[in-house]
């Protein structure tokens, strides 16, 4: 059984996730729980793994493709002293996973 999962607008930069995407394709889903990346990336990947396991109702799942696309970004305004403004750019990513596994 092959399923396709699409996670839209995750609050992490495209450049940070792109370097890890090559490591995360063609592996079993249990590998997601033993990662040692930064805390924010680990948290997002574990949430993704839990949702996939709950949807398929099995732990015998293998990730075939881990694709990353650029999501939306917006400028957040920080007001400073003396009438100055700083802009902070918030970036998001979209993740597409092709998964195949066996039901129990």
UniProtKB/TrEMBL annotation:
Give the highest taxon in the source lineage.
Answer: Bacteria
Biological classification of the source: Bacteria, Pseudomonadati, Pseudomonadota, Gammaproteobacteria, Oceanospirillales
| UniProt keyword annotation of Flavoprotein present | no
Instruction: Show the InterPro entries listed in the entry.
Output: Ribosomal_uL22 (IPR001063), Ribosomal_uL22_CS (IPR018260), Ribosomal_uL22_sf (IPR036394)
Please provide, alphabetically and separated by semicolons, the GO molecular function terms listed in this UniProt record. rRNA binding; structural constituent of ribosome
Q: Which Gene3D superfamilies match?
A: Ribosomal protein L22/L17 (3.90.470.10)
Q: What is this protein called?
A: 50S ribosomal protein L22
Annotated membrane-spanning segments are none
Task: Alphabetically list the UniProt keywords.
Answer: Ribonucleoprotein, Ribosomal protein, RNA-binding, rRNA-binding
Q: SUPFAM superfamilies per the record?
A: Ribosomal protein L22
How this chain assembles, per its entry, is:
Part of the 50S ribosomal subunit.
BP GO terms, sorted? translation
Q: Which GO terms describe its cellular component?
A: ribonucleoprotein complex; ribosome
By sequence similarity, the record places it as follows: Belongs to the universal ribosomal protein uL22 family.
